[in-house]
Amino acid sequence: MIESSFNTTDIQTGNLNAVDSSDEPLSSSYPSLDYEIPNAEEHQDLVRAMRKACGWGAGLVPSWFIQQNEGTRIMAIFYLPETKTPVGMGGIELKDFEFGDKDVADPENLRGCIVSLFLYKKFRRQGYLGRMIQICEELGRQRGLKALTLYGLSKAQGFEKFGYKTFKIEPRNYGGDTFRETRFLLKEIVD
């Protein structure tokens, strides 16, 4: 069972470039990235701007900070080590807030879900996404998780190159009357 409170001061900032406790070797093809666990006072505008650039979720940002303070979400802002230029964001939910699906995220089963992945266009196709996912996996391990999931629509199958395997496909309603086929992927992250 995961403790109900998560002390983010333990991992407020980090450079995990030389740390990866998975069985997979740290890929030298991934560029260096640092991360910071955002707080509402300093980072809310930046996180909201990233969500606006992404095209969804900007209105949810205040609730994400509340969830992080409650220990049910971990957020990270990823940036270039040399310049501190933000390249994107991502996080882990410990509960599936939208659908309550314990296959997706469940603290009792030590399963989290990578969520809110966003990478600015100018940093795409350069290996940054793979590095962001590695950092999320390490944050999950630090939190005591045994597995991470992620999900998406037609392009979600592309996450298989990072070691995630499809475990279910089902329709989900993301608003309105339309149900969209959603692919759910899973990766064990236990050392």
Automatic annotation (TrEMBL):
Chain intervals for the UniProt region annotation (Disordered): 1-27
GO molecular function: acyltransferase activity, transferring groups other than amino-acyl groups
Stretches assigned to coiled coil: none
Taxonomic superkingdom: Eukaryota
Gene3D superfamilies per UniProt: 3.40.630.30
Location of the N-acetyltransferase domain: 35-186
InterPro entries: Acyl_CoA_acyltransferase, GNAT_dom
Segments of skewed composition (Polar residues): 1-20
Protein name: N-acetyltransferase domain-containing protein
Lineage: Eukaryota, Fungi, Fungi incertae sedis, Mucoromycota, Mortierellomycotina
